[in-house]
């Protein structure tokens, strides 16, 4: 049993922290910017909560973070009440936030100065993957640090792999998001085309999902997309837009053209401007239908 701190109890972090206690049997302390959410988690799972990242991190063997963006990572990690101020030498800090490779490398350097291991470990699989402990975890960092962290991460992972050095996990998540939105736009156009053609889409999907068009998004989201249902589930359009902007910024630096991704980011901007930024990212279909 390890002493673990989990910082950030959003739709992903909340169940992930729960798995560490219930499934992993670890001693877990949580922190959330909204104390009521932390109190709710303690009531549901047990464990403890702390009033600051520093307080949560004190005495921990592993500290895991899952917050919103680069600024959130820095606000939780740095400062007098930040996690780094409470960490002892030899601890492993893991960041599950989908953030930039820049902040991952920055945090790795800060941790190394203090004798702390760091792994950037963004996840894929959505809320359902977090709840069911079936996440794909793509990691960047030093092999020794990853080796120590992996048994903890495996508690809620379907697949957990070290891709490369610091920042490689975040870069892999960018690859993941670019692939997903390209697929979603194509799927939206295909399903909308089928509807306009008057086809029975259940029969259509029953056939094409057994061939080269098969994908997780097709099998799990076609029905809600066809029915124009985007609320109350899945990965929010605003979150995907944030992730795409991270990828587009990185692409400017490495010279990779992302014309389709840039266009789809604008589509998500239209969804957000219409007040539907919390809709699932399959709302690309809604733009075509409406």
General description of the model:
This protein has 290 residues and is an alpha/beta fold. The chain folds into 2 domains: 3-165, Rossmann fold; 171-289, Orthogonal Bundle (N-(1-d-carboxylethyl)-l-norvaline Dehydrogenase, domain 2), CATH 1.10.1040. The chain contains 14 helices and 9 strands. Strands 1, 2, 3, 4, 5, 6, 7, 8 and 9 form a 9-stranded mixed beta sheet that branches. Helix 9 (168-196) crosses helix 11, helix 9 (168-196) packs across helix 12 (237-254) and helix 12 (237-254) packs antiparallel against helix 13. The N and C termini lie far apart (53 Å). The mean pLDDT is 97.
List keywords for this structure.
nine-stranded mixed sheet, Rossmann fold, N-(1-d-carboxylethyl)-l-norvaline Dehydrogenase, domain 2, globular, 290 residues, 2 domains, alpha/beta
Question: Any chance you could write out the topology, listing elements then pairs?
Answer:
Blueprint lengths: L2 E5 L5 H10 L4 E5 L3 H11 L2 E2 L3 H5 L4 E4 L4 H8 L5 H4 L5 E4 L5 H13 L3 E4 L2 E2 L1 H6 L3 E7 L1 H11 L3 E8 L3 H29 L4 H8 L7 H11 L10 H18 L4 H15 L10 H6 L1
Parallel strand pairs: 1-2, 1-4, 2-3, 4-5, 5-6, 8-9
Antiparallel strand pairs: 6-8, 7-8
Helix pairs in contact: 9-11, 9-12, 12-13
Q: What low-confidence regions span 5 or more consecutive residues with pLDDT below 50?
A: none
H and E order: EHEHEHEHHEHEEHEHEHHHHHH
The residue fraction in helices comes out at 40-55%
Number of domain modules:
2
Radius of gyration: 20 Å
What's the level 1 CATH class of the largest domain?
A: Alpha Beta
What is the global morphology? globular
Instruction: Compute the average pLDDT.
Output: 97
CATH topology of the largest domain: Rossmann fold
CATH superfamily of the largest domain: NAD(P)-binding Rossmann-like Domain
> Would you count the extended β strands for me?
9
By secondary-structure content and strand pairing, the structural class works out as alpha/beta
Biggest beta sheet attributes:
9 strands, mixed
Output the number of helix runs. 14
User: Distance between termini?
Assistant: 53 Å
Approximately what portion of the residues adopt beta-strand conformation? 5-15%
CATH architecture of the largest domain: 3-Layer(aba) Sandwich
């Amino acid at each position: 049993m390890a002493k673990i701190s989990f910082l950030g109890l959003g739709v992903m972090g909340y169940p992930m922290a729960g798995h560490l206690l219930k499934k992993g049997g670890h001693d877990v302390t949580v922190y959330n910017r909204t104390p009521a959410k932390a109190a709710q988690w303690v009531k549901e799972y047990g464990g403890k909560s702390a009033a600051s990242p520093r307080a949560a991190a004190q005495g921990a063997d592993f500290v895991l973070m899952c917050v919103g963006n680069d600024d959130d990572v820095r606000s939780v990690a740095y400062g007098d009440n930040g996690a780094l101020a409470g960490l002892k030498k030899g601890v492993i800090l893991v960041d599950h936030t989908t953030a930039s490779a820049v902040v991952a490398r920055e945090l790795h350097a800060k941790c190394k100065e203090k004798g702390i291991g760091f792994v950037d470990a963004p996840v894929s699989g959505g809320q359902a993957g977090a709840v069911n402990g079936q996440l794909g975890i793509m990691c960047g960092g030093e092999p020794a640090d990853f080796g120590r962290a992996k048994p903890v991460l495996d508690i809620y992972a379907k697949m957990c792999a070290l891709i490369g050095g610091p920042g490689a996990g975040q870069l892999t998540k960018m690859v993941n998001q670019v692939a997903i939105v390209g697929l979603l736009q194509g799927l939206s156009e295909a399903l909308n085309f089928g509807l306009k053609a008057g086809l029975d889409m259940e029969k259509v999907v029953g056939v094409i999902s057994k061939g080269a068009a098969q994908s997780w998004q097709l099998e799990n989201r076609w029905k809600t997309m066809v029915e124009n249902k985007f609320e109350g589930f899945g990965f929010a359009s605003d979150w995907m837009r944030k992730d795409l902007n991270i990828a587009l910024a990185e692409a400017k630096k490495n010279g990779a053209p992302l014309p389709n991704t840039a266009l789809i980011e604008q589509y998500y901007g239209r969804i957000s401007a219409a007040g539907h930024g919390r809709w699932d990212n399959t709302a690309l279909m809604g733009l075509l239908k409406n």
